[in-house]
Amino acid sequence: MNQLLEQLRICVENGKENRTSPYPPQMKNQDGANELAKQALDAGVTPGDILNLALVPAMDAVGQKFAENKIFIPQMLLSARAMSAAMIHLKPFFQSGEVKRKGVVVIGTVMGDLHDIGKNLCSMIVEGAGWEVIDLGVDVKPEQFVTALDTYPDAIVGLSALLTTTMVNMELIINSIREKYPQTKVTVGGAPLNAGFAAKIGADNYSKDPVELTGWLEKIAV
Amino acid sequence: MKYEFGNDPAKVEGYKKFWSRESVKRPLIGFSFKSWFPLDEFKASRAWGKDAPLTLDMVVPEDFLDDQETLLREGETIDDDIFRGACPAQMLMWGDAILGSSMRVLPGNVVAEPMNLSWEEIDKIGFDRNSPWCKKYIEFIDVLVKSSAGKYPITHGMLNGPMDYAVTFRGHEQAVMDLLIDPEHISAFLERMGDFFIDITKEAWEHIPLFCGGYYDAQYNLWAPESIARLQEDSVAVMSPDLYGQYLKAVDARISSHFGSAFMHLHATSMMVLDQMLDIPTLHCFEINNDVGGPPVATMIPYFQMVQKAKKSLLIRGSFTSGELRLLMDSLEPTGLYLYIMIADMKEIEILRPIVGF
After folding, report:
1. Taking a C-beta distance cutoff of 8 angstroms, is the pair B278, B303 a contact?
2. Mean pLDDT, residues A161-183 taken together
3. Do A113 and B113 lie within an 8 Å CB cutoff?
4. Do B293 and A120 touch (CB under 8 A)?
5. What is the pLDDT of residues A72-112, one digit of tens each?
6. Is the dihedral of CA B129, B157, A110, A195 positive or negative?
7. Phi, psi of B30 (to 5 degrees)
8. Which of B48, B81, B113, B262 is 20 to 30 A distant from A109 in Cα terms?
9. Residue A183: is it exposed, middle or buried by C-beta count within 10 angstroms (0-12/13-18/19+)?
10. Shortest CA distance from A166: residue in chain B
11. DSSP codes joined into one string, A105-172
12. Using CB atoms within 10 A of its CB, is residue B323 exposed (0-12), middle (13-18) or buried (19+)?
C-alpha cells in the first residue's frame, strides 16, 4: 500500500489530527491526518483510495478496539476528529460527484437533550464512511426531522439520546416520521439504550457505537 | 399508631442495618409511585414554558408544597421500610445554576445549557453564597423545613458531579478533549468543583434539621446516620477508566471524605469505573439505577455483586418485572441491600411483595 496511505491510517487510528495537535504524545511534531490527506491527493492518490484504504480501515480498527474496551470515547473522539481533518480535503470530490456518496443520513440528538458528543462522533464517522450527513444538532423536534426528509426523502434517520428522561422522545419522533414517510429507516443510539428498547419503539436498528452504525448502514445500502 | 406520610421512627432501625451491613433476612424495601420525571409531578414546574429559559422568578418554593405533600402521602398507603421526604425542586440542577449556567426547560427535563467557556472565563466560576440561585436554593430548603415541621425529612437538591460541571462549562466534546490535551487546566477546575460540591452540600445541611437523629436523601428515600453527600458523575460515561483514575478519582475521594454517609449514584454507563470507585474507602454506599431501556438486569448482576463483595451497601432503583426481582433476590445478599422499586399501582406491589419476602 502507498506509504502515505499507511501513515494516514496510523494517524487516524491514533487520533493525530494535524501537525500541531499535541495528542498522541508519541507523534508530537509529526504530520497528522490533515497534512497527510492533502499530500496523498497531491501525490495522485485517488480520493476513493484515501477513503477505502486509509480512513475506513482506520476507523474499523478503532471500532474493534472500542468493542474490546481497549479504547474509550475520548480516544474514539480523537480518531473521529482526525478523520474529519482528512475528510475536509475529500469533500470537493464528493460534491463534484467524482466520488459517489453511499446515501444521506439525517442525524440529531432528540428533543429535550442537549448532549452532542455521541451524535458528533456518529456524524464524523458516518461521513468518513462515505455518507452525506445532515446534522440537525441537538434538541431536535419531530417536525425538524420530517422537514429534513422533505428535502432528502430517501435519507436514513439517526436519533441520539444520552438521558433516560429523553430517550422516550425517540418514539414520538419515529411515529412522526413514519406518519409521512413510512418507509424511512430509523436507527437509534446512545448510552442508556439497548436493542430491546430500540425494537419496542419501532426503530429499525440500534448501534452501540458509531462503527457498528456504519456496519449497519453498509448492509442496508446494498 | 399511624404516622403521617408513613414516617414511623421505627424504620430507622432498617436503615441502620443497611448502612452497617448488619446481617438481615431480607433487603430493605421501598415501593414508590414517583416517576423518573419529577418535572411533571408538580403543578408548579408543569406550568413552566417548554423550550424556554428557566429564570429565578419562575421558581417559587411555596408553589411546590401541596404537590410535594400529596406525593409523600403514598407513605400512608404503602407498607414498606422507608421514610418519605422532600428536597428543593428535584428537576433542577441546582449546582449548575448556582455556578452561573443558564437553565432551560425542555420536554420532561430541565437542563443546564452547555456554555463552551474559555479558561479565563472558567477561572471566574466558583461558589458564591450571595449568588441569586444560591439564595433561592437556601430559601427553598428553608421553606421545606418550615412546612415539614419535622413530619418528613428534608435534603439537599440535585447536584451534578465535578466532571458534569466541566461538561456544562466547557462543552461536552471540549471537556473530553481537555482531559487529553489540556489536563492541567481541567484538573484544576475539577478540584475547584470538588470544593464547590463540598461547600454547597455543607451549606445545605446547616439549614436542615436532623430527622430521627440522622440525615436523608429524598431522591432515593434514603436515611443515614451521618451526613449525606449524594455524589454523581454521569459524565464518566464519556471518559475512560484511565482518565477517571488520573483526574477524578481523587476528587470523588476528597468530597466523600467530608461526609460520614457519602454515596455514589450511578448509571449502567459508568460501570467501567466501578472498580475504581469501590476502592474509595469513604464511599460507603452505591446507588445504581435500573434505567428504562438500559441493560437487562441479568447483565447488571455482576456489577451489583462487585459492590457487595467490596462490603459496600447497595441501593438499586428502578421498575422490575417479577422475574427480574426474583433474579436480584437469588443473586444478591440481603445484607446491605436496599431495593427501591418503582411501581405503577398497588396491584403491582401485591405481586412483587412476596418475591422480596416482605
Report:
1. no
2. 91
3. no
4. no
5. 999 999 999 999 999 999 999 988 988 888 999 999 999 98
6. positive
7. -130, 135
8. B48
9. exposed
10. B108
11. EEEEEBTT----HHHHHHHHHHHHTT-EEEE--SSB-HHHHHHHHHH-TT-EEEEE---TTTTTHHHH
12. exposed
Residue of A nearest to B238 (CA): A73
> What are the tens digits of pLDDT across the range A105-150?
999 999 988 888 899 999 989 998 889 999 999 999 999 999 999 9
Residue window 13-32, chain B: list those with CB within 8 Å of chain A: none
Q: Do B172 and A117 touch (CB under 8 A)?
A: yes
Domain boundaries, chain A: 2-96, 104-220
Sort residue B156 into left (φ over 0), alpha (ψ -120 to 50) or beta. Answer: beta
Which residues of chain A are within 8 Å of residue B104 when distances are taken between CB atoms?
Answer: 114
In chain A, the residue whose alpha carbon lies closest to the alpha carbon of B318 is: A164
- Amino acid letter for position B134: C
Whether the CB of A120 is below 8 Å from some CB of chain B: the reply is yes
Interface contact B245, partner A, CB < 8 A: no
Cα(B180)–Cα(B96) distance, integer angstroms: 24
Is residue B37 over pLDDT 90?
no
Find the closest chain A residue to B272 by CA distance.
A69
Say which of B104, B111, B243 has its CB closest to residue A74.
Answer: B243
**Which of A112, A120, A167 minimises the CB distance to B293?**
A167
Residue type at position A218: E
> Is the CB of residue A23 less than 8 Å away from at least one CB of chain B?
yes
DSSP state of B102: P
Q: Where are the domains of chain B?
A: 4-356
Count Cβ–Cβ pairs < 8 Å, chain A vs chain B. Answer: 98
Q: How far is A75 from chain B (nearest CA, A)?
A: 9
* Interface contact B289-A112, CB threshold 8 A: no
Pick the CATH number of A2-96 from 3.30.43.10, 3.40.50.150, 2.160.10.10, 1.10.1240.10: 1.10.1240.10
**Which residue is listed with cell 476502592?**
B279
pLDDT recorded at residue A1: 58
CB atoms within 10 A of CB A29: 7
Residues 66..85 of A with a Cβ closer than 8 Å to B: which? Answer: 69, 71-75, 77-78
pLDDT-derived band at B280 (thresholds 50, 70, 90) equals very high
Q: How far is B308 from chain A (nearest CA, A)?
A: 24
Quickly name the fold that domain B4-356 has.
Answer: TIM Barrel (3.20.20)
Take residue A98 and report the three cell numbers written for it.
467524482
Do the Cβ atoms of B114 and A71 come within 8 Å?
no
Reference A27, options A40, A42, A8, A41; nearest CA is A8
User: How much is the ipTM here?
Assistant: 0.82
What's the CA gap between B147 and B67, in Å, rounded?
12
CATH class of A104-220: alpha beta
**Phi and psi, residue A209, nearest 5°:** -155, 165
